[in-house]
Design a protein that fits this description.
The chain has a single domain (8-275), classed as NADP-dependent oxidoreductase domain (TIM Barrel). Helix content is 38%, strand content 17%. It is built from nine helices and ten strands. Helix 2 links the parallel strand 2 and strand 3. Helix 1 crosses helix 2 and helix 4 crosses helix 5 (154-161).
Length: 279
């Protein structure tokens, strides 16, 4: 599958709120909407979101931002990661959960269909064949255009693909994080013609010059990432040296690497960050 722009906008940080499932620090809603619009103005024509990003908050932001421009935007969302009664999250890839998840997403997105629906993570209790079959049924119903799997290994990709074409796959992938198992996924995508999407291609900010995790809000998830200390910090220093030797910014060096090997999903939290998405 070919997506339009090489880089897409990721919305996980835009759904951040205190007490939410992913805490990136406070995010003003009007600024979040302006961020999505700024990315679209820069020529970014696909947006990746999920119910898990603020339990629907990011999808609602996308709805407001693309109002009047829906036909110009490829919308990708996810399903299968649910909020339990105690507020924690878990995986439910059952057909009933997938259908309910999508219907709720369509309401939040203000859309009658999504261009890609991705199972967010493997559910060890539900065969991937059942999950993919459910999404294929939503394709037949006209609510979904294409099927995707997120964070699934090659074995599960093959099993799902035997049921219906898997056209979009995403994994964590960056110049700092490209393990052999994920490279096998990337090569499988090339074999079958699926788009391979890279989440966290800038390591959630660590691959941007001047980023300081200590300057983030208390409890920010980025403080716990492996590049803050130890071997991860040494690996980051080596990549920073590579960028300096090439005479380019750390951000440009990392994003160019990701764009050469995948479709990067790049998060932004302000219009200024969105306008910097061009490489």
């Amino acid at each position: 599958m070919h997506l339009g722009s090489r880089i897409g906008l990721g919305t996980a940080p835009l759904g951040s709120y205190e007490g939410g499932p992913l805490w990136w620090g406070p995010q003003d809603r009007s600024v979040a909407v302006a961020t999505v619009r700024a990315a679209l103005d820069m020529g970014i024509d696909w947006v990746d979101t999920a119910p898990f990003y603020g339990w629907g908050r990011a999808e609602e932001i996308v709805r407001e931002a693309v109002r009047g421009r829906r036909d110009d935007v490829t919308l990708l969302t996810k399903c299968g990661t649910i909020r339990r009664d105690d507020g924690s999250s878990g995986e439910d890839g059952s057909p009933a959960a997938i259908r309910a998840d999508l219907d709720a997403s369509l309401v939040r997105l203000g859309a009658d269909h999504v261009d890609v629906l991705q199972l967010h993570d493997p559910d060890p209790d539900v065969p991937v064949e059942d999950s993919v079959g459910a999404i294929a049924g939503l394709v037949t119903a006209g609510k979904v255009r294409r099927i995707g799997l997120s964070n699934h290994p090659v074995e599960l990709l093959r099993r799902g693909h035997a049921v219906a074409p898997i056209e979009v796959v995403q994994h964590q992938w960056s110049i700092l994080h490209h393990p052999p198992a994920t490279d096998a996924v990337r090569r499988w995508c090339a074999e079958v013609g699926a788009a391979f999407l890279a989440w966290a291609p800038l390591a959630s900010g660590y691959l941007v010059d001047g980023f300081d995790p200590e300057a983030t809000a208390p409890g920010d998830l980025r403080r716990r990432l492996p590049w803050a200390t130890g071997d991860g910090a040494e690996q980051l220093a080596a990549v920073r040296a590579e960028a300096a030797s090439a005479g380019t910014s750390l951000r440009h060096h990392a994003l160019a690497w990701a764009a050469a090997t995948a479709y990067p999903i790049v998060g932004a939290r302000s219009p200024e960050e969105a306008r910097a998405l061009a490489i």
